[in-house]
Each structure stands twice: as structure tokens, then as C-alpha cells.
Design a protein that fits this description.
The chain has eleven helices and eight strands. Bound molecules: zinc ion (ZN).
Length: 270
């Protein structure tokens, strides 16, 4: 059985693709969904995924930080990109009122357009949210009946927020944030109540290198990489008081179900 990392910025210039990919495979992280955060990054993600169809998939979307670049033409371009069989979700999309690199109005426009596209194409959404929880929930509620599911990528909130997302039928993406005993405290508490049938695992590489991981700077340059997913999973399993094999199976089944990746595909790759 293998691991699925549902959120990797594998086209980030900090990650050297070949060695990072080889270390992922050596760690049994056989299935990776590359995050598309702009038109250009989505295109790159798709091209990379096309080269390794047994292992790599991609999302296509525009991150809230880039929402100021979003025009009516962007949605047509995303629609075209999403015709690739490698694209399994629309996103990374959502709202980030923390840094407001784009104005809230621009972010809301880009987010709603992408929600509509996901509904139209029957694809799930790959969601980002920071300091915009209530507004994000409003949009998700508005489209909930037409959405084909989604994942709250890199969830770092508390149990109340988690329950609101679960009520909307969404999956919860857990990163190495959970290994941070200080910043991750609310999340560590919430995870104890997260049903196994709603968990997805991700590294969000090269960001969020898990705390407590041994220094390996000569190999990874201090970056996070998909090979560290089992380390995160170990922490999650212990917080959920479940066996790691049970968590592995659950996250694999959930990945297949949400992103419509067939099990024959996953088994074939192993
Ligand atoms: Zn994000």
C-alpha cells in the first residue's frame, strides 16, 4: 500500500524535481497531486503530471494572492486546462484576508468564478482559507448543492471550524502543522474528533517542514518534501488513536473517492 500526498507545490523552484520525486517513491509516497496556484503554475503542474501518469495529478486554479490577475478570460483558460485528464480539482482557490495581496473584492470574484467552474465541470474544489472563515463558508454554502465535493487544504483551525466544514460535506487536509506543539494546538485537539472517512494527508511542500523532523539540510536544503508525509501520518495516527495502516488505507480511499482516481490506477503504480 502507498501514501497519497494531495498537496505539493512540486513546480516550486526550491524543489529539484527528480531527486524529490525519487525520495517520495522510496518513502512509498506514490501518489502526488501537484497544486496549481495560477494559470502558469497550473499549466506546469499538468505538463509534469502528464510525464508520470501513474504517480502525478494536478489541480488547476488561481490562489487568492493572485486574484488581482483574474479576468473573465481566466475562467476560459482554466476551463481549457481542466480538459486534461490529469486535472482532478479546481483550485487552489479561496479567500485570504490575512495578507490581502489582492483586495477582498478581487478575491471574492475569483473564488466565486472558480466555484461556478467546479460545479459546471463536476470537479471537486481545492480550498485555501485564511482569516476569512465566515465569508468563505457563505460562498461554500451558496454552492453546496452543485459542488462535487472539496478539500479544505492545510486546515489549521479549531474543532468548531472543522465541524462547519464537515457539515458542508468537505474533506479536511492535514499537513505537518499538526506536528507543531505550539501553533498546532487547536488543530491537534480538533483532529481527535475528525472522522477517518474525511481525512486527507498533504505536505504542502516545500512549505511547512514538520517540526521535530531531524535536520537533513544536506539532502533537502531545509525544505519540506513529499517523502516526509509518513512522518506527518505517524503524528496524525497517534492523535487519532488509530493504527497507521488504518489511517493509510482511509486516506487512500478518501483520495480516490474525492478526486475520482480509480483504485486500479493506484494499485498499478505500486
Ligand atoms: Zn494554501
Amino acid at each position: 500500500m502507498s501514501w497519497c500526498d494531495i498537496g505539493v507545490n512540486l513546480n516550486d523552484k526550491r524543489l529539484f524535481f527528480v531527486p524529490v520525486f525519487e525520495r517520495a517513491l522510496a518513502a512509498d509516497v506514490n501518489h502526488i497531486i501537484i497544486t496549481g496556484t495560477s494559470l502558469e503554475k497550473s499549466q506546469q503542474a499538468i505538463l509534469l503530471a502528464e510525464q508520470y501518469p501513474n504517480h502525478l495529478w494536478a489541480t488547476a486554479g488561481v490562489h487568492p494572492h493572485d486574484a488581482s490577475q483574474f479576468t473573465p478570460q481566466t475562467i476560459d483558460d482554466l476551463r481549457t486546462l481542466s480538459k486534461s485528464t490529469r486535472v482532478v480539482a479546481i483550485g487552489e482557490c479561496g479567500l485570504d484576508f490575512n495578507r490581502n495581496f489582492s483586495t477582498p473584492e478581487q478575491q471574492c470574484f475569483a473564488f466565486e468564478q472558480q466555484l461556478k467552474l467546479a460545479c459546471e465541470l463536476g470537479l471537486p474544489v481545492f480550498l485555501h482559507e485564511r482569516d476569512a472563515f465566515e465569508v468563505q463558508i457563505e460562498y461554500l454554502t451558496k454552492y453546496r448543492n452543485d459542488l462535487h465535493g472539496g478539500v479544505v487544504h492545510c486546515f489549521t483551525g479549531d474543532i468548531k471550524q472543522m465541524e462547519r466544514y464537515l457539515d458542508l460535506g468537505l474533506y479536511i487536509g492535514i499537513t505537518g502543522w499538526v506536528c507543531d506543539l505550539k501553533r498546532g494546538q487547536a488543530l491537534r485537539g480538533a483532529i481527535k474528533s475528525l472522522p477517518l472517512e474525511r481525512i486527507l494527508l498533504e505536505t504542502d511542500s516545500p512549505y511547512l517542514r514538520p517540526k521535530g523532523l531531524a535536520n537533513n539540510r544536506k539532502v533537502d536544503n531545509g525544505n519540506n518534501e513529499p517523502a516526509y508525509l509518513p512522518y506527518i501520518a505517524q503524528e496524525v495516527a497517534s492523535l487519532m488513536a488509530t493504527d497507521i495502516e488504518v489511517l493509510q488505507l482511509a486516506s487512500q480511499v478518501n483520495t480516490q473517492a474525492l478526486f475520482n482516481i480509480s483504485s486500479s490506477h493506484i494499485n498499478r503504480a505500486k
